[in-house]
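dumping these here so i dont lose them again. two proteins, back to back, each one seq then structure tokens. dont judge the mess
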Amino acid sequence: MSRTLITHDVADVDTWLQYKSERAEAIGGMGGSNVVDYVAQDGSKRVAVSVETDDVEAILAAIASPPPELLAAMERHGVIPPLTVYVEG
């Protein structure tokens, strides 16, 4: 199981946080588990999500070319590209 960290900006942190369960469900559909949200403490609109997965490539593929339902969820959550992905070494 590898840990992956995804960082990006959002339009509004409070709105993004309201979608926590929907985000965890969407990431779960890509094979991720133990989804944890993080908010920058400097007051910026920078957030992160950590995910555990056995299939890092599936996560990377979904982020690189999001299917329509994932793209719609990202827009609803206020995600602002680009997304930066860190994979546990």
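---- next one ----
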Amino acid sequence: MKNGLCFDDVLLEPKYSEIESRRTINIGNNLSEKIGLNLPIISAPMDTVTETSMAISIKKECGGLGIIHRYNTIEEQCKLVSDCFPRLITVGAAIGVQGDYFERAQELVESGAKVICVDVAHGHHILMKNALTKLKQSLSSVHIMAGNVATENAFRDLADWGADSIKVGIGGGSICSTRIQTGHGVPTFQSVLDCAFVSKSTGVKLIADGGIKNSGDIVKALAAGADFVMLGSLLAGTKESPGQVISTPKDMCNGKMKIYRGMASKEAQRDWKGSVSSQEGVSTYVPYKGSVVDVLDDLEVGIRSGFSYSGAKDLTKLQERATFIQQSNASCKESSTHILDIANG
């Protein structure tokens, strides 16, 4: 039986540092020869996270990448992509592996999408193999992102099938109930550790997706071997995320909230396909956070600090110098701002 470590199970040992200013640290990375990101963050293709406003803000203002969701008609999704121009050069868009996925991909590329994300819950599947094979034959000049997977073998297969980058993580999202409903999954941190060698040996980029709660988790994912992280809940509830701001009593979340839901939740499935085939997600409301730019600025500060504590001026050095230790439950509690627990009795 294998062990499965999650983000809260580990810490990075601080290392000697010669970094005098955290602004000199390069936290960016290249997704491909033509696509570089100054911020290693990609927004999730969910209908309560990424449409035009999110894609523009995360790229133009912060240097990350937005992946526009696929839970609409081809025409609607293409308009969300085309509305990003001429303000935005690089935007991604998601597709599935059945039905109109190939036509959708072609139309999205014509509308300006530079990244096509083949986005399914269980990516180690014959339908993924068929889709990647067909897409790479016809859209060879487009970056193909695919996922999700949780194991080394799955990562290697998707790389062999033609994926240029692969999303790693099954069941770790804050609104995902896959592990509860199906009994399957691997902690995202463990999946990143397991898949990192294959990523480096094949040159296929690794995107840690799911279970990331803060900038510390982002640093841990990058140090463990990820090239980028994909975020959902951390970006939900912002001004740029889709959905209306809901008024609440002023003593509750400052009086404002926004919807955030898993795409396998009952509510989401009814909206985008008219029926419920499974229930591996939930729908909820999260506090309204204001502009995503402020959220991403705070995350960037934390990421730069994390690199500094390892004495790393870039991602390569971070991964070379990283030493993880496993922490106990008591240590995990000590790692939090536990004065709040004392103050609240």
